[in-house]
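Narrative summary of target 7.
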Amino acid sequence: MTQFIYQKLITENEIAQIMEKRNLGTSDVKITPILMGTWQAGKKWWVGIEDANSIKTIRAAFENGITTFDTAEEYGDGHSERIVAQSLSDVRDKVEYATKVFPNHLKYKQVIEACDRSLRNLQTDYIDLYQIHWPSGSFNTEIVPIEETMNALNHLKEQGKIRAIGVSNFSRIQLESAAKYGRIDSLQPPYSLFWRKVEKDAMPYCIENNISILAYSPLAQGLLTGKFDGSHKFYLDANRANNKLFQQENMKRAQVALDKLRPIAESHQCTLAQLSLAWVIAQPNSNAIAGARSAEHIIANAKAAEVKLSQDELQEIEAIGRIVTSHQDNNPVMWNF
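Modeled conformation, tokenized:
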């Protein structure tokens, strides 16, 4: 394995002081409330991504208190997993790996094989959280009974290859169905101030059953950072070009909401992004998976854990978010694939 030399930014004790870990469901896994998402490290569907910068960014996340890293076999056909390993193998005992199996690998034998591939990619003998990426049948994949997939996951857990089981992009009905066949400790849905479908569907079930919510796109793919105005074009950026939040009418509503959020952020001496992440992790059972292209961005994301919002502020922020969310339909998928 290629060796990388990093400058130590803070001590382990300082890491513990910056971000207090939370329980992952009822498992013995503990995670940071801000996780780092590494979809971009896989390069597929992203532009301008370089491995060296991805490694530097992942390492900066760890050095600034984020110890939980989310990836998937689908992210660049394992490339993201391999980059995570290159970044963190020397501190494996101090971090948590969360990865996912894609819906084209949900038969019993396929799940076992996919997990073994991910273990090799991640250069580890266990995965802290192994998740079903999308429900069976997604993207025209073959329908596999959830019982068969869960049997494989339970077997992997019994072997010690995985520590906890999670699902991603599942509805409440799908989550309840999976939970009949084994313990589910996390749900990973798209969730942000501008995309809140989970609140009306699976979140109440998660709260009742102590299932952690790992919110992906908690910054609405950057829209909540305030860096995109209504005139921005996304011709070379398939992720955002296909994202419903980046369509013209919604972009206009978002700018109105962002203008109302800025004074609250200023009162906390934080950025719009930090305010938005702080809002997510203040919601019941909720944690935020934040991706980043640079060390500077992930260091800023980590500091969001320090932003403490009052109940009045949380309610005010929620009302502002509805400027965007009140115009959305009931389709839970955020992209027009």
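The domain at 12-325 is CATH 3.20.20.100 (TIM Barrel).
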